[in-house]
Each structure stands twice: as structure tokens, then as C-alpha cells.
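Thought: the user wants the 3D structure for the chain below. I'll pass the sequence to the structure tool as-is, report back what it returns, then summarize two notable features.
Action: structure_tool
Action Input:
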Amino acid sequence: MSKKPYRELPGAKPLVQNNTLVLIAYLPRYFSAEECHRIVKLADTETTHDGRIGRGIDNQIRKSEVSYVNPTENSQWVFDKLEHILLDLNEDYRFDLNGFREGFQVAKYTAPGGHYAWHNDIGTGDFSTRKLSMSVQLSEASDYEGGELEFADSTAPAPKEIGSLIVFPSYLPHRVHPVTRGVRTSMVSWIAGPAFR
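Observation:
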């Protein structure tokens, strides 16, 4: 009689594979160019913050400017449009979701050197409820060079087409390469749920 390579907990349920746990979904031009400009204008009415994370030049994790937009009468259409597609995509992810617990963030990565080093979106406190992350390209690809959004273990960076939506589990490591020319503008948001179990 051979031994199992792991110790099973009393009352444990059978293991079921779910290969979508690392799925990165890409929807080209989910937002029109006009809608992207509307989102940027919404962010421009909010306070801009230094998005820098880390201490000192050599330990800088993120270099950008960010604005936060919460749901209001003027911005609700953005959340409605995101929710519609996220509920559809979640039929594959099968995450337990509650809804948006944060607004969306518009980030501007400016040359030279605007970037976001390797990180994931789930963390402690309020960040611990993030389940699905989403990023929308708000700039035209010709507006900047560099600034590629890249995922760990992915063979290619995400496309740069304006209005494109990228959805991924919040625990997937990703980064934004340094911008070498122009400004890369993107929107990010997160949909939350109970603790993973």
C-alpha cells in the first residue's frame, strides 16, 4: 500500500482543478476612445496624488501620478460597464464576489521613468478583499513608448490598444515597464469578495 504524498485534513472536500485561476482576459476596445477621454476628464476633476511607493531612488516601486474616482452620478456608467463584463467573465473564474469596494484609479506614467515594479493587487486590510483586477488602456499606443504591462510567466506584454480591458486575478504578479517617451494613462479597479477559501 503506497502512502499519499500529502496529508489530507479531516472532512476535506475532493480537489477540483480550475485552470482559469491564472487566466488573463483581454477584450480589445471594450471602451471606445470617446469613453476613455470621458474617464480621463472624470479623473481630472479629482485631486492628483503622487503614486510613488517605496523609499529612495533605488527602492522606488512605483513612479506615477494617480487620481481616485468614486461612484457618483457622473461616473456610475463606468462601474456598470465593468460589472457587466466581470460577472460574465466570473463564470470561468468562479470567484465569490460581492461588488466594488473601491472606486477606480487613473494613473499617469510619465517619461522618463514612470513605472510600477513587480507587485500584486491583493494585500492586507482593505486590499485583502480584492479578487479580480482590471486595467483599461486610456492612451493611444502612439502617445508613449515603453510602459508595457507585463505578467509573470506570460509570454508577451498586454496589448496597448486604447480602450482595451485586461482582467486578471488580483494575486497575479504584474508590472508596468518604465515609460521612455510620452505619457501612459490607464485606469485600474478591483472587484471584491469574501476571503479566499
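Final Answer: Structure generated. The longest helix spans residues 76-93. Residues 113 and 178 are 5 Å apart (CA to CA).
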